[in-house]
């Protein structure tokens, strides 16, 4: 659902329980109540450089353009006369909790006013020592975080109602370790901290409370601001940056040099107007994302973290090339098949990755091209098109020996892709032909030939052929990719008709790899981005739309229950961890202990 913004590019937004405040780059301050339906902007003030509002909405401050004076609003009324009290001169940024104001001065010094209320919107300012100049600060419920001019994050220890100034600053090691470079930060409801970085990525941390202001997490969780792959997050975010500083540069540079001036001014921190592109209240997460629009997520959000996993007995510098998940033969859960090259293979349980991997001996003198696996068999395809099968069992989960499959039925056909379901195997040849086989073991269960059934591939333009097939672990879905990275789905698959009836092109993105769980499809784009397909049902096998998730990988796989594993660009093994942020519950759920399908809880972002 879309609504108009106030009219010009958004420099700053601030949200309280009942209102959203929006500052455009011309200095116009607008306000709208937060109804269930659309926003109705009212012009509130002019010549404003920054706006701050307390979480309850009782306190409202502004910093004036040109003069850099901070003013506190006597009584916040949307209509009627307002009285502004001068709170502090030479101010560049203000953050308000429900009873304090933290003010950054033009020289980078930090000041604090305490004991604030509706009847006392400003007070005497006290200087608070700071190890380095600050560009932004955020305060809420006796928690204070700050952003330095060098984009480092600090948090204040010892803050309480009895000691509102706190005791000391601590550098946030987590942000350093993740090399996070925030543009703006804000404290949200339910003890969360949010950051928007220079790449336009949104992150959050949980458990941020006065006694533990750094929070519970040893890493940031990334949230995809945009649901849909078609949205170009980076270029849009750059547009915000440019809009943010156009007012400061317009008078200083001719048009042709404006872009360079903007870029230089932003990175060198010479400008005194700080963009606040992020606001969080009890109804949603608000992110400014364009010249006259912003995004809001009002429900659940999924945070992603890619955890680097080093199996026991392997070097941290090990460069993996391939990872494949399959149902474990021994118990519930998944096996992971890993290799570094075409000459090696090992196996490890996805539930106990800290254990030592089991080495799997490959047939002599073969270069393996790819693998496919199910609960009772591992299939391997070499570069010559030969197929080898390894039977798996509870007593021998990695198998005893390889059996070369007799492919004489296929004649001169050279297979290039394999996919194992539960009882069915699919294959693709070098010319785009598709084949179906009942049974995952070397011998067909009925011992009758022919074992392979040829399936008509989708009708394609000249020169375009299928290059890979991908099956779900329960035999209910088959998807394929062609030589132009288009995605196709096999429709009409049922227990009575396991080969399906037709092909359907799936629009929305180009993919160079697919991975299927029992319920949905994941895709890797040519640039390494990952997306999930939503809306897949028995009656709608193609689903409705793709939604991007955070991360960029060189290879990936998914377990039956939608847990993602991947190879990162330097060859490291990555496990996707998730945490659900919900406005409607008092806890965030970690996927390691919570429901296995948190993505289904995620709500859409609205563009306003």
TrEMBL record:
<dbReference type="GO" id="GO:0032527">
    <property type="term" value="P:protein exit from endoplasmic reticulum"/>
</dbReference>
<feature type="compositionally biased region" description="Polar residues">
    <location>
        <begin position="584"/>
        <end position="594"/>
    </location>
</feature>
<feature type="region of interest" description="Disordered">
    <location>
        <begin position="584"/>
        <end position="608"/>
    </location>
</feature>
<dbReference type="InterPro" id="IPR009091">
    <property type="entry name" value="RCC1/BLIP-II"/>
</dbReference>
<dbReference type="Pfam" id="PF06462">
    <property type="entry name" value="Hyd_WA"/>
</dbReference>
<protein>
    <submittedName>
        <fullName>WD repeat-containing protein KIAA0329/KIAA0297</fullName>
    </submittedName>
</protein>
<dbReference type="InterPro" id="IPR006624">
    <property type="entry name" value="Beta-propeller_rpt_TECPR"/>
</dbReference>
<dbReference type="GO" id="GO:0005737">
    <property type="term" value="C:cytoplasm"/>
</dbReference>
<dbReference type="Pfam" id="PF19193">
    <property type="entry name" value="Tectonin"/>
</dbReference>
